[in-house]
Amino acid sequence: MPNKIVYLNGDYLPVEQASVSVLDRGFLFGDGVYEVIPVFGLKPLRVDEHLQRLQSSLSRISLDNPLSNQEWKQVFDQLLERNPGEDRAIYLQITRGVYPVRDLKIQPDKQPTIFMMVLQIGSIDMSQLEQGIETVTINDFRWHACDVKSISLVANVMLREQATQAGVVDAILVRDGYVTEGTASNFFMVKKGVLITPPIGQYLLSGITRDLVIDLAKENGIDCEIRPVAETELESADEIWLTSSTREIAPVVRLNGKDVADAEAGPLWKKMINIYQQYKQVLRQAK
Ligand code: PDD
Fold this sequence. Notes:
Layout: E1 5-8, E2 11-14, H1 25-29, E3 32-40, E4 43-44, H2 47-60, H3 69-82, E5 87-95, E6 113-120, H4 126-131, E7 133-139, H5 154-165, E8 170-175, E9 178-182, E10 186-191, E11 194-197, H6 208-219, E12 224-226, E13 239-244, E14 248-255, E15 258-259, H7 267-285
Parallel strand pairs: 7-8, 7-14, 11-12
Antiparallel strand pairs: 1-2, 1-6, 3-4, 3-5, 5-6, 8-9, 10-11, 10-13, 13-14, 14-15
Bound molecules: N-(5'-phosphopyridoxyl)-D-alanine.
N-(5'-phosphopyridoxyl)-D-alanine is lined by residues 36, 181, 184-186, 205, 207-210, 243-246.
């Protein structure tokens, strides 16, 4: 197994040799943003949309984008070449870099820290995915800037731990009686054949998988509604899904100790996961 090669501030080097100062603001404050971009074959999935979301996160935290989109794509190609594999994901993060003193104030003209690595995600095991997952609802106590893909994930870690303590794999987060998202995924519900997902805004991340699922639904004649989802609607949902770059589309079969419909992955999930797998296959075959 060759050494894992990562990218750090312009250099490609084995992960063991990559190091960052303890004064880096990412380490001290969680002052940075990140992206996870799935790659099928040689093709990153919706790379322009990921770069657009990166730009939006950077703008929200007042950090200049250190590279142009073309430069980002060149680095992705180089990094993927150095870390061969089939289904992979690019993890990238940019922090505000190293300041000589620990001070919240932003200084102009400082060098950010750019770090990237390739995650070997492997192909999704369809029969395992179809088993579905069990979740609970948990009060979403995160901040009012959930649209920023911030590396400060301690709230998400705490929420995931609450789910673990409840003996389930993930949580569906609820704020003021309305569903926001999962701890690292977006939420969909199916009711009477209609796919429903909450609107983006300050309480949830604009997931690239979410957008793709919405687009694929439209292209394939599946009715899709974007509207707030009240917690009280969950009990009568026909299907519930959680979507993300790494989890793809996970059916939720039990919620708060009760079955979701028949406690099986539903028919619309089966249709959508097939459409999604075909979409990936086209990417894998693309040159
Ligand atoms: N997380 N919401 C949150 C809070 C997330 O962290 C993620 C993804 C999503 C889904 O976004 P996307 O479809 O673009 O992956 C929604 C990544 C995978 C992570 O933190 O590893």
